[in-house]
Amino acid sequence: xxxxxxxxxxxxxxxxxxxxxxxxxxxxxxxxxxxxxxxxxxxxxxxxxxxxxxxxxxxxxxxxxxxxxxxxxxxxxxxxxxxxxxxxxxxxxxxxxxxxxxxxxxxxxxxxxxxxxxxxxxxxxxxxxxxxxxxxxxxxxxxxxxxxxxxxxxxxxxxxxxxxxxxxxxxxxxxxxxxxxxxxxxxxxxxxxxxxxxxxxxxxxxxxxxxxxxxxxxxxxxxxxxxxxxxxxxxxxxxxxxxxxxxxxxxxxxxxxxxxxxxxxxxxxxxxxxxxxxxxxxxxxxxxxxxxxxxxxxxxxxxxxxxxxxxxxxxxxxxxxxxxxxxxxxxxxxxxxxxxxxxxxxxxxxxxxxxxxxxxxxxxxxxxxxxxxxxxxxxxxxxxxxxxxxxxxxxxxxxxxxxxxxxxxxxxxxxxxxxxxxxxxxxxxxxxxxxxxxxxxxxxxxxxxx
Length: 450
Fold this sequence. Notes:
two-stranded antiparallel ribbon, 11% strand, Serine Threonine Protein Phosphatase 5, Tetratricopeptide repeat
């Protein structure tokens, strides 16, 4: 692993305060904690754990999952050498792409911080049973975070899960910066991720801005689906479906305005202090420059009565992405939704389909469809194409589409009107070089084993 990414930084863990009214995490980057102080008590150790969230940026998955697929079209303002994600969108990127490097760097930097905490946890004094339970919960939370970060890296830089003999990214569980780990098999990767997930099963807190037990369940459902363990995926998804309601059309918009968390299993708090947040992926608010617009292909999927059409707007006569429209205080800030219960319905539908339980799969798809469009007619048959269409419509701009196509080894197909130039390629096939994202060049230069 590149030492530039996982070197020790004195202020790796940030002081976190928790608002007594609504348990929102507020990061104060100026109040860094020394390593010695982090391990001086359970309370300080918790501040170190919370500091790991400050470098976790699932926004890169939102961006890559959208621009690499058929969810976006490139705006004319986002062209040339100063473009943002434009080469990824046109499938002409290289291993030096800045977005790819940041997605790699930030995740492994956070993994390093987690490993540092886990390796030194033995130093933390525990004085009573209450502290002992709290400490065990924090250790479980770290294991869950480590699994989540590795899975995000795998989705970006690993091979397709369609072939179990393929390889993926290293799974790092230590702080040895001198090691040069190579890629590992998917079998070994999933063994590691389930080991961490099995150690993440007893988290005390219920704050949904931190990883908690239900978020671990959601990650397990997602991992099991990718791994094609369909019975386990359905089991985990069902446990969450029993706990979280699907909102109707009247309350759906409040999810994206941060006024309604009933569907949200896990999200990350974002403020003006966060340079990267969901709203900033599609346009630059300081300059007014538009980066990406919704694809005509995606927008054509919705009926006029579908509540999800409100995820698109108009600006200067053209369509814009407005799934994250801002909150009551700012039109530029929204929290990142990492897991929602609608994904669990779609996971269970796909799992049941592959297990031959077509009626159960059909029921879940119709349940979701009628919640999003009260005028829609229920469908009578279910297919994998149909389930993928529902995932496309429901989870757009949430970091799924490219990864869904990749795990099934399906081509990415864009409509002609969604191409930036008539000379652009409209189909990205699994055999194409650009189909699998490369490990960033800086990393392979430092570690040829990658």
